Amino acid sequence: MVKNLLNLFFPQICRACSNILSDNELHICTDCRHQLPLTNFHQEKDNAVHKMLYGRIKLEQATALLHFSKKGIVQQLMHNLKYRGHEEIGLFLGEWLGEELKHINGYSNIDVVIPVPLHKQKLKSRGYNQVDNFGIAIAKALGAEFNSSVLIKTTNTKTQVFKDRLKRNFNDNTNFKIVNGNTLENKHILIVDDIITTGATIEDCANRLLEIKGITLSLATMSITD
């Protein structure tokens, strides 16, 4: 009864289309779930994420859950996640992808999941890193550790999602540093992020992490830009 009253006065809405959710729906309505543009990249070794980063960094595995396009359903989800405080979207997508990855041999030996970090000023302003819940859910599914304290962002940059590709290439000169990297020596690390665009941010993170002795790297993101 209490739940019905709450839904009457404060109805739960779909984070993709803003329609009211039915009692058996969570976060995203059934229609929008069916419209999500899944990539299924984790089922392909030579996928678009691998090709984007080929020759730049060596990845054991790489995937993105969804295709991102301007004014599309995934953009709406990312906007709600990053700017409207709906952290549950990251958890939802992480549980989805984690369930897929745990059945794939190439991801079964992941030791640590590390999110692409926010600069401390942006973290203070936003109040959360939108990638954390995504990474936590994947780590749980894989039986891995989640670590958000080893990789630190040292420069504060503006969001890249809505810039054109040329401007992103010019501006993706981000900087990161490693803290207590010796705790990750000889481990298989999965980097997680929300959107991969040019791959420059991931490349920068990977180059810092590769300073750690004996590590191998893999990558999983919520989405990839078309």
Structure characterization notes:
This protein is 35% helix and 17% strand. The protein is built from nine helices and seven strands; from the N terminus they run αααβααβααββαββαβ. The radius of gyration is 18 Å and the shape is globular. A five-stranded parallel beta sheet has the order 1-7-6-2-3, with helices on both faces. The chain starts with a helix and ends with a strand. The protein is an alpha/beta fold and 226 residues long.
Q: Which percent band covers the strand fraction? A: 15-25%
CATH class: Alpha Beta
Largest sheet: 5 strands, parallel
CATH fold node name: Rossmann fold
Low-confidence stretches: 165-173
Q: Residue share in helices?
A: 25-40%
Tell me which CATH architecture applies here.
3-Layer(aba) Sandwich
Number of helices: 9
Distance between the termini: 45 Å
Q: What spatial form do the alpha-carbon principal axes imply?
A: globular
Provide the structure class.
alpha/beta
Number of strands: 7
Radius of gyration: 18 Å
Q: Any idea how many domains?
A: 1
Query: SSE order in H/E notation?
Result: HHHEHHEHHEEHEEHE
Task: Please describe the topology of this protein.
Blueprint (H helix, E strand, L loop, with lengths): L1 H8 L20 H6 L12 H6 L8 E7 L4 H11 L4 H14 L10 E4 L4 H7 L5 H11 L2 E2 L4 E3 L11 H7 L4 E3 L9 E9 L3 H10 L6 E10 L1
Parallel strand pairs: 1-7, 2-3, 2-6, 6-7
Antiparallel strand pairs: 4-5
Helix pairs in contact: 5-7
